TrEMBL record:
Stated name of the protein: DNA sliding clamp PCNA
SUPFAM superfamilies: DNA clamp
Pfam families: PCNA_C (PF02747), PCNA_N (PF00705)
Listed GO biological process terms: leading strand elongation; mismatch repair; regulation of DNA replication; translesion synthesis
Keywords per UniProt: DNA replication, DNA-binding, Nucleus
Record GO cellular component, one term: PCNA complex
GO terms of molecular function: DNA binding; DNA polymerase processivity factor activity
Domain Proliferating cell nuclear antigen PCNA N-terminal span(s) in chain numbering: 1-130
Compartment(s) of residence: Nucleus
Length: 254
């Protein structure tokens, strides 16, 4: 038996919006500790890893480890039927080939649960191999406002991903003299790093901006860059992107 209730159902809506253009189908893995997802894009250049801890849900019941394959585009369409303030309940079991999404209004929560939407979605059989992602020591770690990172990626992408139009340079300096901690830019650098990435992927990652006020970017030579958006105290969504090799076409750096 699987049953979980998320008071802020909009969190899952935002998660789906941030990853559905990168991954079409994926397995959602449920265990007693929470919900996880790991999947690569079709080109095997980028990987997304999601964690939503069980303690972040108002109610979380998972009798045994369960994996549910879902089409993220269809799931996103279904979640759009829920209001931003609706409570989301997900139900499933071991014998059914469907999963149920229930949306309830929070406005009448103190009196009774008023069901406003109830959907069933067909599950998929997805062959998805989990990759072991070892912990690594990164040469440089940048923590900055997520909206500013999205703006930078958008500006660089306007020049073009191949450099045909021209080149652009944006210098990011550490800035901690701000009123709000989330507005600070903090750079931890053990060694200088110079890497090149495909901006179309970086722009896709920034669709997770509504999930967090800040983003953490970890870089080290010969390792994928890690772009992490923390989801309150509940978990995170991480994007891993393989750097362009020297023989690849040059383009604006991110």
């Amino acid at each position: 038996m699987l049953e979980l209730r998320l008071v802020q159902g909009s969190i899952l809506k935002k998660v789906l919006e941030s990853i559905k253009d990168l991954v079409n189908d994926a397995n959602f893995d449920f265990s007693s500790s929470g919900l996880t997802l790991q999947s690569m894009d079709s080109s095997h250049i980028a990987l997304v890893a999601l964690l939503l801890k069980s303690e972040g849900f108002e109610h979380y019941r998972c009798d045994r480890n369960t994996s549910m394959g879902m089409n993220l585009g269809n799931m996103s369409k279904m979640l759009k039927c829920a209001g931003n303030d609706d409570i989301l309940t997900i139900k499933g079991d071991d014998v059914s080939d469907t999963v149920t999404f229930m949306f309830t209004s929070d406005l009448v929560r103190e009196i009774f649960f008023y069901k406003i939407a109830d959907f069933e979605m067909k599950l998929m059989d997805i062959d998805n191999e989990h990759l072991g992602i070892p912990e690594a020591e990164y040469h440089a770690i940048v923590k900055m406002p997520s909206a500013e990172f999205a703006r930078i990626c958008k500006v660089l992408a306007s020049i073009g991903d191949t450099g045909d139009i021209g080149t652009a340079n944006i210098v990011l300096r550490q800035n901690t003299t701000v009123d709000k901690p989330e507005d600070a830019t903090v750079i931890e650098m053990n060694e200088p790093v110079s890497m090149t990435f495909a901006l179309r992927y970086m722009n896709t990652f920034t669709k997770a901006t509504p999930l967090s006020n800040t983003v953490t970017i970890s870089l080290s030579p010969d390792l994928p860059v890690v772009v992490k958006y923390k989801i309150a105290e509940m978990g995170y969504v991480r994007f891993y992107l393989t750097p362009k090799m020297e023989e690849d076409e040059p383009g604006p750096r991110a």
